[in-house]
Amino acid sequence: MRLRPALDLLAQVGPLPDGDVIDLCCGDGAVGPALAARWPDRRRVGLDASPAMLERADETGAYAALVEGDAALWHPEAPPALIFSNAALHWLPDHATLMPRLAGWLVPGGMLAVQMPRQFGAPSHRFLRDIAAAMFPDRFDAGPEEPPVRSAQHYWQMLAPLGQVQAWETDYVQYLGPASDSHPVRRFTESTAMRPYLECLSAAEAAAFTAAYDTALSAAYPLLADGGALFPFRRCFFTLMV
Fold it and tell me: Which residue numbers in the chain have pLDDT < 70?
């Protein structure tokens, strides 16, 4: 399930002109082998801000070069044929500037291919904002009204003046196994979306916050007979050929 969105995005990338393949925000290189299998004769470059992640990416053997850097500031040595980014660019602000800038680095006929999670409005994420704002209004508000990742239609309209765009959204229904001391969805979010909230709370406050969150999750994601839960996870995709 981890790689399925990346592979679904990769399936929409057609023939490319000459140039490098860039794995933007490559992380531990999970997508590297798939890129290598698709373009074995291309120079494949992974970029990430984390030296530790780059060390792990190097172990895959999928990259000709690995570059430490900030994707918001990065520019390639030469115009690439593909900039591929899997589940990373939602961490960066100002997409109206970022996405056209990335597209501007491509060779003619090159492609920008992006996949990002779009869970801002899902109960798993909305409950965190709402419960935190209600229980601790002195430390949390309801959060930004505008989600970090907009709709597929929004990206289509943003990028259409630059070339040929495909944009779509998909809900991936994940089965989460039972958790002995928590709701399965809470176990999924506690190391990601939930972490910034817990870091601002004392142990007693965190326990109360977690209990309220578990209760809300039980209503939105009913437990299955085995104690697991189904967790729809939405992702936004687009490709732009310039």
Answer: 1, 142-146
Calculate the CA dihedral of residues 7, 88, 222, 183 and round it to 10 degrees.
Answer: 120
**pLDDT at residue number 175:** 96
What pLDDT shows up at residue 51? 96
Angle at CA of residue 229, ends 226 and 234, nearest 5°: 160
Record the tokens describing residue 28, joined without a space: 């531990």
Contacts for 123-129 with beta carbons within 8 Å, 24 or more apart? 123/216, 123/217, 123/220, 123/221, 124/185, 124/188, 124/189, 124/193, 124/217, 124/220, 124/221, 124/231, 125/189, 125/193, 127/213, 127/216, 127/217, 127/220, 128/189, 128/193, 128/194, 128/197, 128/213
